[in-house]
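User: structure tokens for this one?
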Amino acid sequence: MADPFGLVRDGQLTVFCEYLNYRDAAVGTIAAIQPFGAAVRVPVTIGPVPPVHLSYPAVFEHAGRLLCIPETQAAREVALYAWSDFRIGGSSSPR
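Assistant:
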């Protein structure tokens, strides 16, 4: 795990980060962990993403929506992803 980005929401710290499993994948994905909870890493589905390495997940909240701009240099784009709902241990619905 690398490139941590913390967000406090509803009094709970969630750390979003790049996750790269060298055995299974050649590209990084976005994962999340709540270090003061069960501290279990969970993959994060941020939406329809290009099949490129994702890192530096800049996560922020605006107007009640959780937004993410990951680094996607190989896709040659800057993309903004929004969750309609995000919970570790629950369902996450990208939008």
